[in-house]
Specification:
Shape: elongated
Order of helices and strands: HHHEEEEHHEEHEHEEEHEE
Strand content: 15-25%
Mean pLDDT: 84
Low-confidence stretches: none
Structural class: alpha+beta
Distance between the termini: 44 Å
Largest sheet: 4 strands, mixed
């Protein structure tokens, strides 16, 4: 059975296909043929690749051989970056809802349950019920970096730095997406590598706290009054709160929690509780009591565990995967080439490329998740 691609992987493949087609239409060369152009192989010779590009430029009477080589090289670097972007293991896809964006910003209006039907007496009017929803807007941010390849790398072609630098362009973008997803999940302003990550920007005007509150409009709550370390009692309390979670009108939402997010600090404790055959605590020795010796573990298999090193230490949350939090993608990772015959590329004798992507991630309705600890306890 073939592996199902995520939304980001599908968009990435479409972008690669477009670039390969552009090169094929202009030069008649299929750089997507991995049997010939295995750019990631340590045996692939960029020196030979460059020499053949120069020959092609002469045969096509191209005015600048460097331009021809640069355009072909861009397709190769895009291929390497995309491959490493795809292979970099990230976990946020396991719990977010992925969407494709076609605008500068997207508007979300998740509707909660309408009012319920009521008994209607004879000769009485049917009741008119109301519908409530959230008014959420998410703007796509632009991300990218510029990286240069010295001409000597292709002349000498001994160190493998071309493959390594290209791989970094793809892998680092995937890592950045993971970092943003978990930072936005917690919802507080933070930073990584000196770049600020804003707090959640989707807070409705009628909510006093966002995205985690002890008193939402309608009576819901998705955090304890005081954050607590992860444990069986805290997990049970979170489950009890979520299954009776209330929407804007005070109706029970029927949340079905199935995923625990945790940091490295609690990963083994979470795994122990979710996988032990017997109840992982013995508060009582009374025969038949919950937690007595050899009692079955009613928490076994209750949820999947997702650990990320980008969650604050000791932070943990319980909720329903695919609900409440959206990762929207406007443009997938793309490699853009600077004109090698002008500007800094000409002055410094190097080929310069820019990675670029547009996306955003944030809450549209945090009632589907319960934050037990934001890492402060």
């Amino acid at each position: 059975m073939s592996k199902q691609l995520t939304v980001s992987q599908q968009l990435q493949q479409r972008g690669n296909t477009r670039i390969i087609k552009e090169v094929n239409d202009k030069y008649g060369i299929d750089v997507g043929d991995s049997k010939i152009f295995d750019f990631e192989s340590p045996f692939f010779s960029f020196k030979t690749f460059r020499n053949q590009a120069y020959k092609l430029a002469r045969s096509m009477q191209e005015s600048t051989a460097e331009t021809t080589f640069g355009q072909l090289l861009r397709a190769g670097i895009q291929s390497i970056a995309n491959g490493w972007y795809q292979r970099r293991e990230t976990t946020y896809q396991k719990w977010v809802s992925e969407s494709v964006s076609s605008k500068r910003q997207e508007f979300y209006a998740p509707l909660h349950h309408a009012g319920f039907p009521r008994r209607v007496d004879a000769n009485s009017k049917f009741p008119e019920v109301t519908v409530a929803g959230l008014d959420i807007m998410m703007k796509n941010y632009k991300f990218g970096a510029i990286i240069g390849f010295e001409r000597e790398l292709f002349d000498d072609d001994q160190t493998g730095q071309v493959q390594q630098r290209s791989a970094d362009m793809g892998e680092n973008m995937a890592i950045l997406e993971e970092i943003w997803a978990y930072a936005r999940f917690i919802g507080l302003a933070s930073s990584y590598a000196g770049d600020p990550i804003p707090a959640s920007e989707t807070k409705p005007a009628n909510e006093t706290a966002w995205p985690f509150s002890t008193s939402f409009v309608g009576g819901g709550a998705n955090r304890p009054a005081t954050y607590v370390r992860f444990g069986k009692d805290a997990l049970i309390a979170a489950w009890k709160q979520l299954v009776v979670q209330k929407d804007l009108l005070g109706n029970i939402m029927s949340v079905r929690p199935d995923t625990i997010l945790c940091s490295r600090e609690d990963y083994f404790d979470v795994s122990l509780i979710l996988n032990s055959q017997y109840y992982p605590s013995v508060p009582s020795t009374t025969t038949g009591a919950t937690g007595a010796p050899f009692a079955s573990n009613e928490l076994k298999g209750i949820a999947n565990v997702v650990m990320s090193p980008y969650l604050p230490d000791k932070a943990w949350a319980f909720g329903q995967a695919g609900r409440g939090f959206v990762f929207q993608r406007r443009d997938p990772l793309e490699i853009i080439q600077e004109n090698p015959s002008s500007g800094m590329a000409f002055e410094q004798d190097e080929f310069r490329f820019r990675s670029r992507s547009r996306w955003d991630c944030d809450w549209v309705d945090p009632r589907f998740w319960f934050l037990g600890d934001d890492g402060t306890v």
